[in-house]
Design brief:
Layout: H1 10-26, H2 40-64, E1 69-73, E2 76-84, E3 87-88, E4 93-94, H3 96-99, E5 100-101, E6 108-127, E7 154-162, E8 169-177, H4 180-183, E9 185-188, E10 197-206, E11 211-214, E12 239-241, H5 242-248, H6 253-259, E13 261-272, E14 283-288, E15 301-310, E16 313-337, H7 339-352, H8 355-366, H9 371-378, H10 390-398
Parallel strand pairs: 13-16
Antiparallel strand pairs: 1-16, 2-10, 3-4, 5-6, 6-8, 6-9, 6-16, 7-8, 10-11, 10-12, 13-14, 15-16
């Protein structure tokens, strides 16, 4: 007798059946079962949710956000500024070259409105400022020779000397003398400052759309020499009076001129490039940028010195300047119709309408009185067929009424 062929293991046979079943199921088409529920309240909720979703996409997404457009934020920008005007203090007349720092005409510059001048400082020894910590003393023992205070005005010599005025004494330092607090004189430059004019020339470019525009009107009749900015009549005349900028920022000019501060001139270019280029216009706004209500850091000031020679000795005039710093900030966004974002947002809108069905199904199966009946109608359950012979399996599969179990 020939040896019987070995039977394949049961696990391999089951794996083949599973693979054939998966392959067959891959080509099946599935469609959801539709049940019509005659319930007016549920129907009102369903249509209301659909309407809200539709209004959100039509009004907010497509009209307000313009999501049918391809967009670009942050335009390439250039800013050129120029200040004009003269003013005077108690001692002299000041022109642009003296009160504007730096003079290059960039997007950030300062207009000096008050100064504290310490004239004729020379290298030598003198009393330290009383504002410096541990500067006051009673005798030379209180002063350590060679000590250097990073917030002070020089290297201590080790001697305790009388202060510039009064009976107090401070440690002597070697540096530029006299120190600032001992001989400074205040001068106010802000009397004519509100009438200073500031030209802000701005050009922007959106590289994605190859769109460029500037904020100055192209005219050859000397228009810029006789105009000042007005939102209605002279939008493309970017010449602003300093007093106008401070007022629009909500500040008091006299107070700001004494303490100093930072004002932002914000130019916003929001352009809908589906419209003509004439509809893309700059929008100006003004606000104070530095922390006004924080005493420790309010105001704005800086120091600089002018050096010269007196009888061959190095001499300087130290100036502590208070002023109004102008920061020109440019931002914007451009958009133009594009098919890809339109299709994406339409598909999202159509898909989101299905949220109404999900919400109503949840209400139907959770809170309705006949939720078990609805659950039975909505979900069909099929039990595993009993294990039997081939004839019984064939009869079960051939019985059309067996579909009632699905």
């Amino acid at each position: 007798m020939e040896a019987a062929e070995p039977k394949p293991p049961a696990g391999a046979d089951a794996a083949r059946r599973l693979a054939r079943g998966c392959w067959s199921a891959f080509w099946d088409y599935e469609t959801p079962k539709v049940i019509v529920v005659k319930n007016r309240r549920l129907g009102v909720v369903y249509r209301a949710v659909q309407l809200l979703i539709l209004l959100y996409f039509v009004w907010y997404v497509f009209i307000v956000q313009k999501s049918y457009q391809d967009s670009e934020t942050g335009p390439e920008s250039s800013v050129i500024t120029k200040v004009k005007g003269i003013t005077f203090s108690e001692h002299k007349v000041w022109d642009v070259e003296e009160y504007v720092k730096p003079p290059e005409g960039g997007s950030v510059f300062s207009i000096i409105t008050r100064i504290e001048v310490t004239p004729s400082q020379t290298l030598g020894t003198c009393p330290e400022s009383m504002r410096v910590s541990n500067a006051t003393c009673d005798s030379d023992v209180d002063c350590v020779a060679g000590q250097l205070d990073m917030l002070g005005n020089g290297l201590r010599t080790g001697r305790c000397v009388p202060y510039y005025q009064g009976s107090a004494k401070t440690c002597e330092v070697s540096g530029w003398c006299p120190v600032e607090d001992g001989a400074s004189v205040s001068q106010f430059l802000g009397k004519m400052a509100p009438n200073f004019t500031i030209l802000i020339k701005n050009s922007i470019h959106y590289p994605k759309f190859q769109f460029s525009k500037g904020n100055i009107e192209h005219r050859k009749d000397g228009y810029l020499k006789r105009c000042t900015f007005d939102e209605v009549s002279d939008l493309y005349c970017p010449i602003f009076k300093l007093g106008f900028i401070v007022e629009r920022a909500g500040e008091n000019f006299t107070e700001l001129a004494h303490t100093g501060g930072v004002i932002g001139v914000i130019i916003n270019w929001d352009c809908d490039l589906d419209l003509s280029a004439s509809k893309c216009n700059p929008k100006y706004s003004f606000r104070r940028l530095d922390p006004k209500h924080v005493p420790a850091s309010s105001g704005y000031n800086f120091r600089f010195a002018k050096y010269y020679k007196v009888n061959g000795s190095a001499t300087r005039t130290l100036i502590k300047a208070y002023g109004i710093r102008i920061d020109v900030i440019v931002h914007g966004q451009a958009g133009k119709f594009s098919l890809i974002p339109t299709i994406i947002n339409l598909a999202t809108a159509l898909t989101s309408i299905g949220v109404g069905s999900f919400l109503c199904d949840w209400i139907l199966l959770t809170f309705m009185n006949k939720n078990k009946v609805y659950s039975h109608k909505k979900f069909d359950k099929m039990a595993d067929p009993p294990t039997s012979g081939p004839s019984q399996q064939n009869s079960t599969l051939s019985d059309p009424r067996g579909l009632a179990q699905l």
